[in-house]
Amino acid sequence: VVPLVAGDERLGLITLDRTVCTTYDAATVTLVEVYGQVLAIALRSLRQRRALERLRAQHHDHARALEERL
Question: Which contacts of 5-13 are long-range, i.e. CB under 8 A and separated by 24 or more positions?
Answer without folding.
Answer: 5/40, 6/37, 6/40, 6/41, 6/43, 6/44, 7/44, 9/40, 9/44, 11/40, 11/43, 11/44, 12/43
